[in-house]
């Protein structure tokens, strides 16, 4: 397995792409409520599993093919809904066919981000789901 997980690689790529700064408004892991140090407009990137690895022919020493799914959640205050939607769409496009070091491919699972709507905390949310694949 690569030393860096796909959620960390995607978060770093989003920061490099100008979508924010890791540990400032891009976070690896589940959504964190708005608080000191966690702004309302933020992105959360979390690996959420995938199917069991598929072994290649060749016995125990052969490589396996791994599929890992990653969810990118974009959160924005209600007052900046349009900005959040645009950011989610831009992130969706950025992630399609993204070259991740050590991975065979990175493919988004929908053509548009999924709008989750307005939460009780007056923040809108969108998700982008990504399939990453690697052979190791």
Beginning-to-end CA distance, first to last residue: 6 Å
Count up the domains. Answer: 1
What value does the average pLDDT take? Answer: 93
Task: Assign a percent range to the helix content.
Answer: 10-25%
Strand content: 35-45%
Kindly report the oligomeric state of this protein: single chain
List the uncertain runs: none
Report the principal-axis shape. Answer: elongated
Rg is 16 Å
- Number of helices, where a helix is a run of at least 4 consecutive DSSP H or I residues: 2
SSE pattern: HEEEEHEEE
CATH H-level superfamily: Phage tail protein-like
Task: Examine the secondary-structure arrangement and name the CATH architecture.
Answer: 2-Layer Sandwich
CATH topology: STM4215-like
Number of DSSP strands? 7
Largest sheet: 7 strands, mixed
CATH class: Alpha Beta
Q: Class by helix and strand content?
A: alpha+beta
């Amino acid at each position: 397995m690569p030393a860096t997980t796909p959620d960390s690689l995607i978060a770093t790529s989003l920061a490099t792409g100008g979508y924010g700064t890791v540990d400032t408004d891009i976070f690896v892991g589940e959504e964190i409520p708005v608080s000191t140090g966690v702004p309302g407009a933020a992105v959360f990137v979390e690996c959420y599993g995938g199917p069991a690895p598929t072994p290649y022919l060749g016995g125990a020493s052969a490589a396996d093919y791994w599929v890992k799914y990653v969810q990118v959640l974009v959160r924005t205050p209600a007052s900046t809904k349009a900005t959040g939607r645009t950011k989610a769409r831009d992130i969706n496009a950025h992630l399609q066919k993204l070259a991740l070091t050590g991975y065979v491919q990175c493919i988004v699972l929908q053509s548009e981000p999924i709008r989750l709507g307005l939460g009780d905390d007056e923040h809108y949310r969108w998700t982008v789901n990504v399939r990453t694949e690697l052979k190791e």
